[in-house]
Amino acid sequence: MYIAEYFRENAKPNGHRDAIPACAGIVGVLAAAFSLSACAVSDDPAVTVPGKDICGAAEYRQRIGENIAAVSIPDDLYHRVIGPNTIVTKDYRPERLNIYVDDNGTIERVVCG
Questions:
Q1: Is residue 108 within 8 Å of residue 60, measured between CB atoms?
Q2: Nearest to 67 by CA among 102, 35, 113, 18
Q3: How far apart are CA 80 and CA 86, in angstroms?
Q4: Which helix (H) or strand (E) covers residue 36, if one does?
């Protein structure tokens, strides 16, 4: 039964219609749809277990305390240099090397992500 038919058939003698049952049905359908959407498969690549050094961070951790300008980073290395006021995305990419520097360019931390 369509909602419009329901309202026509359930009109009260004073002309008012009882909208609560129809709204409750709609709310139930929407709640079911939203809860099923949580089960949807993501298109994002699988995230690996943290702790694996996929990006090669261990090699660059020995450079902590040095200035980033003195560090040679290969062009094909997927990386980003992050300063104190740098805006970055929060996506986790295990193959990406994140090099955190202070205001002077001194390397403070090196992690994958």
A1: no
A2: 102
A3: 10
A4: helix 20-37
> What distance in Å separates the CA atoms of residue 97 and residue 22, rounded to the nearest whole number?
54
Rounded CA gap, 47 and 32, in Å?
28
User: Of 17-21, 40-44, 46-50, 97-101, which has the strongest mean pLDDT?
Assistant: 97-101
- pLDDT 10s digits, 24-78: 666 666 566 556 555 554 454 444 455 688 999 999 999 999 999 999 999 999 9
CA distance 2 to 69: 69
Q: What CATH class is the domain 57-112? A: alpha beta
Tell me the C-alpha to C-alpha distance, in Å, between residue 71 and each of 58, 67, 81.
14, 7, 12
Q: Among residues 26, 13, 104, which one has the least CA distance to residue 66?
A: 104
Q: What does the domain layout of the chain look like in residue ranges?
A: 3-37, 57-112
Burial of 111 (0-12, 13-18, 19+ CB in 10 A): middle
Report the C-alpha gap between 28 and 19 in whole angstroms: 14
Instruction: Return the residue matching tokens 């040679």.
Output: 72
